[in-house]
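Input (structure):
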């Protein structure tokens, strides 16, 4: 799951920002190189909340969490990263990820949003993933606020299939960022209006 979207989103971007940015710069900020990760024995933890309509296969999460932790690869005894997702009903381990690779939490968030949208609309996760990839690479806005740098993207507003997306054409991806070497503080995917009422929100604790 994670390897697929990591490959799809392999943009190799660096931080470029100030004011409202032209196409590409918002994605650069989100995909800034935050590695190599040095957790020093302290896990990083994000709260996790997911809501949406009752559809078979869709898992809402009231009060969950995602922890980024460091482990040891048993095959070569080298340090790696893992994610531990805890929901209302289960705990699962995701990884491993390389210490010096991309942001595992960002990868997790984007794949979660992609799969949720596919389940709730019946659309192709490959199509959805590619549209999100294009939006993050080429579009978006980045602004300065008191609580940090905010990057926003709307991947489907001009999509030719927007009329068949059941409200997901309004999807907005929002990222609250600090220093480019620091973890992303908040990640949020949200549709506008009551239908479908989808939210995927993570906040660094």
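Output (sequence):
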């Amino acid at each position: 799951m994670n390897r697929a979207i990591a490959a799809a989103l392999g943009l190799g971007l660096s931080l470029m920002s100030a004011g409202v940015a032209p196409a590409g710069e918002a994605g650069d900020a989100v995909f800034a190189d935050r590695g190599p990760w040095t957790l020093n024995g302290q896990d990083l933890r994000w709260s996790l909340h997911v809501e949406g309509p009752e559809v078979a296969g869709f898992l809402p999460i009231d009060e969950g969490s995602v922890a980024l932790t460091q482990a040891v690869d048993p095959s070569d005894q080298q340090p790696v990263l893992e994610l531990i997702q805890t929901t209302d009903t289960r705990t699962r381990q995701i990884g491993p990820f390389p210490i010096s690779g991309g942001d595992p939490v960002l990868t997790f968030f984007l794949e979660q949003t992609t799969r949720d949208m596919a389940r709730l609309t019946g659309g192709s996760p490959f199509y959805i993933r590619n549209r999100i990839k294009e939006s993050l690479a080429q579009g978006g806005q980045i602004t300065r606020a008191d609580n940090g740098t905010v990057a926003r993207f709307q991947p489907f507003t001009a999509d030719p299939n927007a009329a068949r997306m059941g409200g997901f054409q309004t999807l907005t991806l929002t990222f609250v960022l600090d220093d480019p070497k620091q973890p992303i503080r908040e990640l949020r995917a949200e549709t506008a209006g009551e239908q479908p009422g989808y939210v995927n929100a993570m906040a660094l604790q």
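Notes: The mean pLDDT is 86. Residues 25-204 form one domain.
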